[in-house]
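Q: What structure does this chain adopt?
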Amino acid sequence: MQNALNRLNHLNLRWLLALCLMSALPTAHACLDAGALKTLAEREISYMTQRIPPAFADAVSDQLIIGHMQLVQAEPCQAKWVLNLPASDIAEAQALLDAQPAKQIMLAAQGYAIPAQTQLEAVLNVDAQHIQPKAKEELQTAELGKLRASVELMYAMLTQARADQQTQAVAAWSAAEVTRLNTACAQQFSADNVTQACECRTQGISKQYTLRQVTYNQYLSSNPYAFATGNGGQFKQLEKQLLSICGLKPVSP
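A:
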């Protein structure tokens, strides 16, 4: 009986030692939990929206572009950025590029290309403490940098092409859109009666352009390289005429 008790105690001691050793081993934890991955994805979309020409932001707003992050491994901390683009935008951009073979050759020689498929992926090393890509991931030699450059090229082309795109009839602007442009006008220009003058300008613009096109043209005007392509000239000429007709003058900086 005593021998049996001794064997049992010995067995219990071995189990206790094993549990102690297991608890002393490092535990592998994911460097990014579900909440951190969501934050990382939101920050990447925000970064791209602020950096890439406005046709991209409109596609995001229309929920045509969706992105999410997946955990790849914990050490080193890596995530995969998966970005889904609308096939119609890719086709439109490719058609624009096909119409300019010289430009296509030049861009290809510089390592630029528009996306070839709707789902883009990039594995990136992550600074888990700050929930952001490590600095080297933004270089164009890195997967994330290449993805960003590809999408930026595509939506730069679409923004330029859509800025002066004419349709048979422009849909009536909503009250909110009219107010938005009138408010921006009052901040940019002065007049004897700025409210009335801005309404005159908005009315003239809204007959030929959508509010999104106004945003595209404003982007082109603020980007010398984009404006040098020749896009945006028609809008600039119309606005020049409207400023004179409506009695508006730019506010001095």
